[in-house]
């Protein structure tokens, strides 16, 4: 098993850092371009949710990402220690958002759920939220 952990300030500019870090960590597995794009999208949605909804863009706070690779199975955890989610079922509803003033808001978790093999959400009010995302890469050696 190979794993990494990184934390960074809850600034939207750091979303690109998180995307690049995850993509680079996957490189030894020789993922397809489509798989890299899917992982970057997953990271983008999860990290921006933590920054916008978990922390209200408070740059004093930190987002933590952890990644584990076992074979071709990848598990990504994105965690914040922010305000938490009151109703987990409600946030899974497409177009539901607590940031109604933002364009394209309300699709992040739906996008993650569509691209991932599995999405788990753990959240406690005023303690934070953890997304655990699992996705298998295709086996490219058996063509």
Automatic annotation (TrEMBL):
Record GO terms (molecular function): protein serine/threonine kinase activity
Enzyme class: transferase
Gene3D superfamilies: Histidine kinase-like ATPase, C-terminal domain
Domain Histidine kinase/HSP90-like ATPase: 34-139
Name under which the protein is recorded: Anti-sigma F factor
EC number: 2.7.11.1
Superkingdom, taxonomy of origin: Bacteria
NCBIfam families registered for this protein in UniProt: spIIAB (TIGR01925)
Keywords: ATP-binding, Kinase, Nucleotide-binding, Serine/threonine-protein kinase, Sporulation, Transferase
Record SUPFAM superfamilies: ATPase domain of HSP90 chaperone/DNA topoisomerase II/histidine kinase (SSF55874)
Organism: Allocoprobacillus halotolerans
Transmembrane parts of this sequence: none
InterPro entries tied to this protein: Anti-sigma-factor_SerPK (IPR050267), Anti-sigma_F (IPR010194), HATPase_C_sf (IPR036890), HATPase_dom (IPR003594)
Pfam families for the chain: HATPase_c_2 (PF13581)
